[in-house]
Amino acid sequence: MRIPVYLCPSEINDRASGADNLQQYPVNYGANLSTWMVYNPSNGVGGDGAFFPNSKLNFRDFTDGTSSTLAFSEIKSFQAILKTGGTLRRVFQAILSRSLYFGGSNFEVDNGHTEWVEGRVHQDGFTATFTPNQKVAYVSGGKTYSIDYTSEEEGDSATGITYAAVTSRSFHTGIVNALLMDGSVRTVSENTDLQVWRNLGARNDGQVVGKW
To answer: Is residue 51 in a domain?
Structure first.
C-alpha cells in the first residue's frame, strides 16, 4: 500500500518500486539504527542507535537522554546502494575520507528506501556514519553516484554482522528534519559537526548534546 504519511511532499519519486515483482512503495522517514554497526545475529547484539532487529529497549537504555538521541530522520527513496561488497578495512578508510571508492559486487542504482514493508536498514533506516545530505561518492560504469552502503542484509546470514553507512537525506535545501526520542522535531543543518551528529545517533555514548 501507498501510505501517504510515510512520504514527504518534497519526494520526487512518489511511485511504486516494483521490487521483487510486487508493487511496493517507498518511505521518507528512517529509524535510527546506529552510527555504524547495526546488528550481530550470532549473539543478538544490536548497534548504539534507537532501534535494532528484535530490540526491546526501554527509556532507561537511553542514558544520554531522550532529547539527545535521534529516533527518526529523513531519507530519500530510490537511493543508490552498494550491498555486501568491498572489505571492512577499505570501508573504514573510505569513511575517514567521506567517500566509498572501493570494489563491490552488488551495486544497485535505485534500490534503497523503496520498500517500507521490508524493515532492513537500507530500506527503513539510517545510520549516523555521515552527516545529513553528505555526498558519498562511488563510481560505476564511468558514472559517479552518491550512495549508501550495507555489509550484510539483516536476516540473510546467521553469522554475518551488518555494518551500514545509510545517510539521512532530503530534498530540502541544506537541511533534514529529524524526530528525537523525546517526541520533538528538529530541523538539522547538513553542516552539523560530524561528531555531534554521531553523538545524537548514539543512545548511550556518554555524550549529552546540548545546543546544536
So the answer is: yes
DSSP 107-146: EEEEEET--TTT-SHHHHEE-SSS-TT---EEEETTEEEE
Tens of pLDDT, residue by residue over 20-29, are: 667 899 999 9
- The pTM (predicted TM-score) of the whole model is 0.91
Residue 41 lies in a domain: yes
- Any domain includes 206: no
Total count of domains within the chain: 1
Each residue's pLDDT tens digit, 65-124: 999 999 999 999 999 998 876 556 666 666 666 655 555 568 899 999 999 999 999 999
In a domain, 167, yes or no: yes
Which range marks the domain in which residue 27 is found?
Answer: 4-201
Residue 20 CA to residue 189 CA, distance in Å, equals 35
